[in-house]
Design brief:
One of its GO terms (molecular function) is oxidoreductase activity. This is Thioester reductase domain protein. This protein has a seven-stranded parallel beta sheet, with helices on both faces. It has a single domain, classed as 3-Layer(aba) Sandwich (Rossmann fold). The chain has 278 residues and is of the alpha/beta class. It is built from nine helices and seven strands, in the order βαββαβαβαβααβααα.
């Protein structure tokens, strides 16, 4: 491909995607609201841009074959805080992609779009939305937006419902973990698959305890290699018995399912910021 665009390039997941994406195209345009993202990879350029600005997204998406959209406010918060980057930002990315004739948007959706389903329900990619927060609601909005732009305007999109892409240091992650290597494979398959239309796939590794079903998305060729069971003995030895009446333990959304609307979900998690540095 001639040009890929990566939004959210300054984020933790974006830091692991920049190098492999730069090798898939002549030019990778990375964008975020940070002033810079450090040393660039060969073929990579950085453009500071605000997702909430259609003008900014029009500039970065010009000439792009595909947009890999990872930019967002990545936590629960008041609706007004998420409105610009997560809701309006999604519209701006899809609209800019459409106006510039891009082929596909590969989107970092989230398990929080369906986070209120009980974890003992093995859910597929076709279950109705059941968001756990305003953050999850924004993911529902972007998924519906992607379906509409496919059906009305022919713009393909793949929506990766990432469960938890972080170090395995809690019991929930034994089922929800997505390793960085599997993340890279997943995004690569979403880009390289010849035809996707509108598709949804769960972003999860090959965990013995994975609570979701990707059978309907097998055509994407995603075959995860890592398994959180490697960490199970250590994690469970450090974990007190969980409360089955606590929605944070019982629901797919984990801590996000338990917080009040507008209150941080990350505040109740122990995510290690191990972003990759060039």
């Amino acid at each position: 491909m001639k040009k890929l665009v990566l939004t959210g390039a300054a984020g933790r997941l974006g830091s692991y995607l920049r190098e492999p994406l730069s090798k898939m195209c002549d030019t990778l345009v990375s964008t975020d609201i940070a002033d810079d993202i450090g040393t660039l990879y060969p073929g990579e350029t950085y453009v500071k841009g605000d997702l909430a600005s259609l003008d900014d997204m029009m500039k970065v998406c010009e000439g792009a074959d595909m947009i890999v959209h990872f930019g967002a406010f990545v936590d629960e918060g008041p609706f007004e805080q998420l409105l610009g980057p997560n809701f309006i930002g999604a519209y701006n990315v899809w609209e800019a992609a459409h106006r510039h004739g891009a082929r596909r948007v590969v989107y970092a959706s989230s398990i929080h779009a369906v986070g209120m389903y009980p974890k003992n329900e093995f859910i597929g990619t076709d279950v109705p939305h059941r968001p756990d927060t305003f953050y999850g609601l924004a993911k529902c909005f972007a998924e519906d937006l992607g379906r509409m732009y496919w059906e009305k305007r022919g713009l393909e999109s793949v929506h990766m419902r990432i469960l938890s892409c972080a170090q395995v240091n809690n019991a929930r992650a034994l089922g929800s973990w997505l390793s960085y290597d599997d993340l890279i494979q997943l995004v690569t398959r979403c880009i390289e698959t010849p035809v996707t239309g509108f598709s949804v796939i769960y972003g999860v590794s090959n965990n013995d305890r994975a609570p979701v079903d990707n059978a309907s998305a097998s055509f994407l060729g995603y075959r995860p290699q890592d398994n959180a069971e490697d960490f199970a003995a250590e994690v469970l030895a450090q974990t007190d018995p969980l409360d089955p009446q606590d929605s944070g333990h019982m629901c797919h959304g984990g801590p996000f399912a338990a917080v009040d609307l507008g209150q941080s979900g990350l505040a109740n998690m122990t995510i290690v910021d191990d972003r990759k540095t060039t």
